[in-house]
Amino acid sequence: MQSLNICFAEKNLVETRSEPVAELGANEILIETQRSLISTGTESIVLGGKFAAGTHWDNWAKYPFYPGYSAAGRVLRVGASVQDFVPGDRVAARSKHKQYAPYPDTRRPLKIPAGVSDEDATFFGLACITQIGVRRARHELGDTVAVIGLGLLGQLVTQYVRALGASEIVAIDTADARLKMARTHGATHVLQMGADAARDAVFDLTGGRGVDVVYDITGHAAVFGPALRLARKYGKLVLLGDTGTPGDQRLTPDVITRGISIVGAHDSHSPAEETDENYWTAYNMARLFFTYLERGQMRVSDLITHRYSPEEAPTAYAMLQTDRASAMGVIFDWSKISK
């Protein structure tokens, strides 16, 4: 069996490759992908080689690189030892942008509830990453929050903190379309400007206090310093946008003079196994996200702006490199592959 796979053959070179599917292991399921979601920040950094030597990016992103980590599909076959899945099950998995993806059941693919579409299900990976950041912030009822960067992660954070009872959510971005989306997802105020210009407005909106929690979700190193200035005394800055050049992030006097706490959040921070002390594994966070979708407490369908056949992958990534501000959710529809 051959699979159409998307590959970054080298820096700034996207290819679609027809490659054989590996033999299915005893503890694996074979997923026929229906939809997959581009992680625009991560995949753009890797494709463009926009990371410094010696960073965690440099150690991870080796060409040829197979991108993708959030897909929805159907179980086509199961290995001899698999008990929890049968052919035909709809599943969400942290699999690559591949037509057919062998996936170990030990990594706990998630059955998609009937009330969740394949397209919506592809957001589960980003929904888990943002939950990690929101949990690390340790919010209290009535917190004031600033979200810098209203891409997909920023839109999800906005919905989560709204659900947690934030009293004010200030969305900060230079793209008007993103701010309009943030309004519909719970932002109480929108500021169309960069973080470096937002301090006076944020302090005006909070009675001169600053916000309790700032989220920097931009992935741009230069935002770190201005983001620190938006927090109240003893407030928090959550770094959820992972820059490729962390050495360019500069502390400001706010850390010492105003006691700002800096909290790092990364996809790798969720525990692998559920324990009595820590229930919130990636699996359980994804289940919660699906529950919110089914109840209408969150929505992501309106965040999708582009759909492509996987065969159009070079076009999709070229669009993201040149016009990323106009793009939000970019979906590969694997049902559109030429027969």
How are the secondary structure elements laid out?
Layout: E1 2-10, E2 13-20, E3 28-37, H1 40-48, H2 56-60, E4 71-78, E5 90-93, E6 100-104, E7 110-111, H3 118-121, H4 124-137, E8 144-148, H5 152-163, E9 168-173, H6 176-184, E10 189-192, H7 199-205, E11 211-216, H8 224-228, E12 231-239, H9 254-257, E13 261-264, H10 282-295, E14 304-308, H11 313-322, E15 329-333
Parallel strand pairs: 8-9, 8-11, 9-10, 11-12, 12-13, 14-15
Antiparallel strand pairs: 1-2, 3-4, 3-6, 3-15, 4-5, 5-7
Tell me about this structure:
With 339 residues, this protein is α/β, with parallel strands linked by helices. The protein contains 11 helices and 15 strands. Strands 3, 4, 5, 6, 7, 14 and 15 form a 7-stranded mixed beta sheet that branches. Strands 10-9-8-11-12-13 form a 6-stranded parallel beta sheet, with helices on both faces. It has a two-stranded antiparallel sheet with strand order 1-2.
